[in-house]
Amino acid sequence: MGNDIFTDMFDYKKIRAEFPIFSHHPDLIYFDNAATTHKPKSVIDAISNFYQKENANIHRGIYPLAAQTTMKYEEVRSKVAKFIQANSSNEIIYTSGTTASINLVAQSYLQPRLQEGDEVIISAMEHHANLIPWQMICKNAGANLRVIPINKKGELDLVKFKTMLSRKVKMVAIVHISNSLGTINPIEEIIELSHQKDIPVLVDGAQSVAHYSIDVQALDVDFFTFSGHKLFGPTGVGILYGKKIYLEQMQPYQFGGDMIKNVTFEETIFAEVPQRFEAGTTNIAGVIGLGASIDFVSSLDRVGVAEYIKGLTDYAMNKLLKINDLEVVGTAKNKSSIISFTLNNIHPHDVATFLGTDNIAIRAGNHCTQPVMDFYKITGTTRASFSIYNHTAEIDVLVEKIKEIREFFLSV
Ligand SMILES: Cc1ncc(COP(=O)(O)O)c(C=O)c1O
Question: Active-site positions?
Fold first, then answer.
């Protein structure tokens, strides 16, 4: 069974005990953390407490319960700002998740500015959420969506990228960590190169925010997006960070209550940033839960967490690569805790179904990155992604089960 060296540097059992899902499913081996993470009790309690003891709408009522909820909701905004080192909480917009955050930038920032012949640069490893919003506005404007190619290891071709940068490019939108290949992209360099040509950069941080400390000011990134549910927080809530100079130029693209200063039948004056981007009743309980998840993550030794998860990934890579006919898809030098693989010509859904019957939760398919699958000429991969409550002993079980599945399919 598993190698315990990691337990010395990181008390995974203590962490795991904070996640109620594992007391309900003690045998669950959860390796689908790139899809969503489980929630610690503190997050679940924060949401439950909110509904049981505090529920009220925000920015409207002036009675004490409503005022208190508004205060808590806005406190989380400051907490998020501090968490990603934003200059001001006014640069933090609540959305329903990464997808909504990217759509907001595409619709509110870029769409009104994009002209025929302009260009938007993305990469060949984008999640559909950071592809389709740009593709749609490019099509409408007669602009071109350009794609930074990748090599077989799943690394960006930065030489090519440099040649693509020109005055025609109006946005570079790039994933920080690829959800299907695990590649960690050199976003610092990409931002610097883009800024040399005055091009704003959006970084999709959906897969990075749980594992690494983000400092948006040090990165000098113009827009940064993430989802609560991949950060041990609730679903249905996410963040768009935007630099003030950009947010203040942006008109909202969703209209209604809570985003206005004044309304007549003739005209509406919008509220200031960030409220003008938060039309209607937002996911208040989700925001409260996100605050609790940030407290949880902040209470961890983040460098220790990153080392622990890197240790798990290296351990898994070593063992998986020894399995006959298993090929890891995405072998970048700089790789995160996401391992995609194919196993002979066995369909990834079959692999995942077999593993599922043994309580191993693992993802199979194209991972919302169909062009990545096209690039490798495969229909999909099986993907294991690790988090703080995983352990080497679980990886040992996975490896043995994969060997069994291979044997089984060879025998039929
Ligand atoms: C890299 C990346 N970007 C964007 C998304 C979309 O996130 P959400 O579905 O939370 O909006 C995901 C989700 O898997 C992702 O992995």
Answer: 368
Q: Ligand 1 centre from 319 Cα, in Å?
A: 28
Ligand 1 atom closest to 96 (CA):
11
Residue nearest to atom 15 of ligand 1 (CA): 206
Q: What is the 3-state secondary structure (H, E, C) of 270-318?
A: ECCCCHHHCCCCCCHHHHHHHHHHHHHHHCCCHHHHHHHHHHHHHHHHH
Pairing of strands 260-263, 268-270: antiparallel
| CATH code for the structural domain at 5-30+301-411 | 3.90.1150.10
The CATH classification of domain 44-298, taken from the options 2.60.40.1120, 1.10.1760.20, 3.40.50.720, 3.40.640.10: 3.40.640.10
Q: For residue 36, which phi and psi values (nearest 5 degrees)? A: -165, 150
Q: pLDDT by residue (tens digit) across 32-84?
A: 999 999 999 999 999 999 999 999 999 988 899 999 999 999 999 999 999 99
Residues of the chain with CATH 3.40.640.10: 44-298
Q: For atom 16 of ligand 1, which residue has the closest CA?
A: 179
